[in-house]
Amino acid sequence: MIARLSALLERAGVMLAGVALFAIMALTFFDVLGRKFLSNSIPGALELTELLMVVVIFGALPAVSRRGEHVQFDSLDACLPQAARSAQKFIVALAVAGLFFALAWIMWAAGGQFAETGETTAQLNIPKAPFIYAMAILCAAAGFMHAAILMGDDGRAEAGGEGSAL
Predict the structure, then answer these.
(1) Which of 54, 76, 77, 102 shows the greatest Cβ crowding within 10 Å of its Cβ?
(2) 113: which residues sit within 8 A by CB, 6+ positions away?
(3) Neighbours of 69 (CB within 10 A)
(4) Residue 48: which domain range?
(5) What is the pLDDT of residues 49-106, one digit of tens each?
(6) Is residue 60 part of a domain?
(7) How many domains does one find in the chain?
(8) What contacts 144, CB < 8 A, 6 or more positions away?
């Protein structure tokens, strides 16, 4: 059950990040065309790119977590006994899961404050709260992935194993 939910969260995050990345590409392409050939860029293109980058980064977090593709320092792993490596893996997964859940909680609260104050982007007046809430949800999904690793039911075999490519 947990492996299926992990796989679903991973696919949804990758799809979300992919769509946002494509949107950035298309926006940049048309913005450059407009500037070069029409002497007029797309209003708010930089703002939209910034918001879409948030979606790309946080959308990919659950997949990166599930696949074990976070940046790691493993130069000393060959020197450690298996028991120490297993303990290290458990402690790191516990700490990272806790940090992601704490970050999700903080972001959810920030999203509430942004919604309450009506915070928007400077040029296009796009509300910021939905993006902050989405960041919180995606951090919680990444935390869930690390919690699944702790329970040993993360479905990494289905995902291509540790270190597999997106």
Answers:
(1) 54
(2) 119
(3) 15
(4) 2-70+82-158
(5) 999 999 999 999 888 888 877 777 777 778 888 888 888 888 988 999 999 999 999 9
(6) yes
(7) 1
(8) 5, 6, 9, 62, 97
